[in-house]
Amino acid sequence: MAGLAEFAENNQLKASHFTAIGAFHEALFGWFDGEKKAYKKIPMTQQVEVISLEGDIGLVNGKPVVHAHGVVGLEDGATRGGHIILELIVRDLLKEPFEVNILKEVLNLES
Q1: pLDDT of the residue at 92
Q2: HSE (CB half, 13 Å, CA atoms) of 72?
Q3: Looking at the domain 2-106, which fold is it?
Q4: Nearest to residue 68, comparing CAs of 33, 103, 17?
Q5: What's the start-to-end Cα distance of the chain, in Å?
Q6: What percent of the chain has pLDDT over 90?
Q7: What is the DSSP string of the chain?
Q8: pTM score, two decimals?
């Protein structure tokens, strides 16, 4: 998600929304425990398909901050998801040409 924050900063985006599909080799999700005021970590240590990933980028103290949630599918069809704490290794996220071209068009970027 650091790459998205950097992209937002470089392009002076103040408020943005994004969606994505693809796959993670590994990822770390979280479930917020309101009583403990902390995230319970949900590690994904296997190849998973990203069924849905969406989030927002907003400014906090003038710097872009990414907040994203996702759902992934496991090999047996089970799903897991939550707040995305860290994507460790991303495979095919926003893969060419379809999704990247849409992102470029929405953001008015040169190809």
Answers
A1: 47
A2: 30
A3: 60s Ribosomal Protein L30; Chain: A; (3.30.1330)
A4: 17
A5: 22
A6: 28
A7: -HHHHHHHHHTT-SEEEEEEEEEEEEEEEEEEETTTTEEEEEEE-S-EEEEEEEEEEEEETTEEEEEEEEEEE-TTS-EEEEEEEEEEEEESTT-TTHHHHHHHHHTT---
A8: 0.69
Give residue 51's Cα distance to chain centre.
12
Give the pair of three-digit tokens for residue 20.
């994505």
Domain regions of the chain by residue span = 2-106
Smallest CA-to-CA distance from 55 within 14, 16, 94 is with: 16
**pLDDT tens, residue by residue, 30-56:** 999 999 988 899 998 888 999 998 989
Is 80 exceeded by the pLDDT of residue 17?
Answer: yes
The pair of structure tokens assigned to 61 is 């103290």
